């Protein structure tokens, strides 16, 4: 509570003495500090960061928003930028470097030490969205012939420059990955035991070209703190840590959600506020316009059966329920299938099994919802106008049957769209949801009016 006022009013931080500021820094996590000062101007943020020691300075800076990082770096000279980037984690440093303007990259790179320059070049060489692009080079390695006592001493030496030392990777002469050993096992083992005697040889690993989502899924599946990444020569080139895996999963979830709703763009986390109105419009209009044009088909269907609607106004009352129910059941089916495809639980080859299961679920839903619709029409639809000689029982039967068929077809369409997209090597999330509502509306109206025409007839 001592620093509550500073936390509540970041502007006060710019005027406090060094002792108070250091006390504030020592009582807060770097992520919280960056969040507190993020409301200040770039000049004020840098002035505050400079008053922290170099390691804390780099940590606070690493937690700032990417746009703020770039803005701050743009106000600094190349020497200050190089000093700041030297103390940043290798993966964060590389991410920042890749976002800098080319002119600033050329001025900063010579100011960095040789090791940092080579590290940036190496990590920058990998394609975005792959394991190589998200890995870090700050990891601990051991030789197999070391004793556990020597290994622990080695970890003490490299710990300040390693992002994660709970796992130490055992390498051969050509940096080939032989195994790994945990810090816990090193501590519990006999001091004279060799590393190759206690190491785990069944290593779960990724290759540099593997998709980042697959890497994150491996870390989640096997409960790992980090996953080693090897190249084509089976040499260890980096690791992906669990915190980076969480960032990847968040990013992929954001991307899937936005694609599922037909939103284009970069699919960045926390991008809503910083994206302008024109940017949001540009990301949203393609699918909306395309599906609106396709939706005109629904109008033609209604126009074709205009005479039936004029005779039986009661049919118009239940059109919204038909559309909503079809959209809801189709979306449920599509969501489950898209998720299962993303988690590799199913493939497009499982289409018959999936359709069989969805058909059974759809039939149960159709019976339930059809019964509800029948009861609503038969017991509470008597006040609606209709030509003489037409039975309310027949109308209720027609509406409930049409609704049941709509549920079945919508559910199957919801499953087929993502499966078909996966078969054609397209993103299921992009194809499934945006097109689903429009297609279900069209098929639903055709089913509704066709059943009504066949069962009710007309004058």
When the domains are counted, the total is 3
Helix/strand order, N-terminal first? HHHHHHHHHHHEHEEHHEHEEHHHHHHHH
Low-pLDDT ranges: none
* CATH architecture assignment name of the largest domain: Orthogonal Bundle
In CATH, the homologous superfamily of the largest domain goes by the name SLC41 divalent cation transporters, integral membrane domain
Q: Summarize the amount of helix as a percent range.
A: 55-70%
Task: Give the averaged pLDDT, no decimals.
Answer: 82
Query: With helices defined by DSSP (H or I, 4 residues minimum), what is the helix count?
Result: 23
CATH class of the largest domain: Mainly Alpha
Span between termini: 80 Å
Q: Count the strands?
A: 6
Strand percentage, roughly? Answer: 5-15%
CATH topology of the largest domain: Tetracycline Repressor, domain 2
Please state how the strands of the largest beta sheet are arranged side by side.
1-2-3
Biggest β-sheet description: 3 strands, mixed
Overall SS class: mainly alpha
Describe the protein's architecture and organization:
The protein is mainly alpha-helical and 459 residues long. It has 3 domains: 4-125, MgtE N-terminal fold, CATH 1.25.60; 134-242, CBS-domain (Roll), CATH 3.10.580; 277-455, SLC41 divalent cation transporters, integral membrane domain (Tetracycline Repressor, domain 2), CATH 1.10.357.20. It contains 23 helices and 6 strands. It has a 3-stranded mixed β-sheet with strand order 1-2-3. α15 (212-221) links the parallel β4 (206-207) and β5. The chain is elongated, with a radius of gyration of 31 Å. The model has no long low-confidence stretch (mean pLDDT 82).
């Amino acid at each position: 509570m001592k620093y509550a006022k500073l936390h509540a009013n970041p502007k006060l931080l710019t005027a406090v003495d060094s002792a108070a500021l250091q006390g504030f820094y020592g009582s807060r996590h770097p992520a919280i500090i960056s969040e507190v000062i993020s409301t200040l101007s770039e000049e004020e943020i840098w002035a505050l960061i400079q008053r922290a020691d170099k390691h804390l300075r780099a940590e606070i800076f690493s937690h700032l928003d990417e746009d703020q990082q770039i803005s701050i770096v743009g106000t600094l000279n190349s020497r200050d930028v190089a000093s700041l980037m030297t103390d940043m984690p290798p993966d964060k440093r590389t991410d920042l470097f890749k976002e800098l303007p080319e002119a600033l990259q050329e001025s900063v790179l010579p100011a960095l030490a040789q090791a940092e320059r080579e590290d940036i070049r190496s990590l920058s060489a990998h394609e975005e969205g792959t394991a190589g692009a998200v890995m870090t080079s700050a990891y601990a390695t051991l030789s197999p012939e070391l004793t556990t006592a020597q290994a622990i001493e080695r970890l003490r030496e490299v710990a300040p420059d390693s992002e994660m030392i709970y796992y130490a990777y055992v390498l051969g002469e050509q940096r080939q990955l032989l195994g790994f050993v945990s810090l816990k096992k090193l501590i519990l083992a006999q001091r004279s035991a060799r590393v190759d005697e206690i190491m785990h040889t069944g290593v779960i690993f990724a290759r540099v070209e593997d998709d980042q989502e697959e890497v994150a899924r491996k870390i989640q599946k096997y409960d790992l703190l980090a996953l080693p990444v090897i190249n084509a020569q089976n040499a260890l080139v980096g690791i992906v840590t669990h915190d980076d895996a969480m960032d990847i999963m968040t990013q992929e979830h954001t991307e899937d959600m936005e694609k599922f709703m037909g939103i284009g763009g970069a699919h960045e986390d926390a991008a809503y506020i910083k994206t302008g109105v024109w940017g949001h419009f540009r990301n949203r209009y393609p699918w909306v316009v395309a599906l609106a044009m396709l939706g005109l088909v629904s109008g033609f269907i209604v126009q074709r059966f205009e005479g039936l609607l004029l005779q039986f106004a009661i049919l118009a009352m239940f059109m919204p329920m038909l559309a909503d129910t079809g959209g809801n059941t189709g979306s449920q089916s599509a969501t489950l299938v898209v998720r299962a495809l993303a988690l590799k639980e199913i493939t497009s080859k499982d289409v018959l099994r999936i359709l069989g299961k969805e058909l059974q679920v759809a039939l149960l839903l159709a019976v339930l919802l059809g019964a509800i619709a029948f009861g609503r029409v038969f017991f509470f639809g008597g006040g609606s106008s209709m030509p003489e000689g037409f039975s309310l029982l027949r109308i209720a039967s027609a509406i409930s049957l049409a609704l049941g068929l709509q549920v079945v077809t919508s559910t199957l369409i919801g499953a087929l769209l993502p499966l078909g997209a996966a078969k054609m090597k397209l993103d299921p999330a992009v194809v499934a949801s945006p097109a689903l509502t429009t297609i279900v509306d069209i098929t639903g109206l055709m089913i509704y009016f066709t059943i009504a025409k066949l069962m009710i007839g007309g004058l």
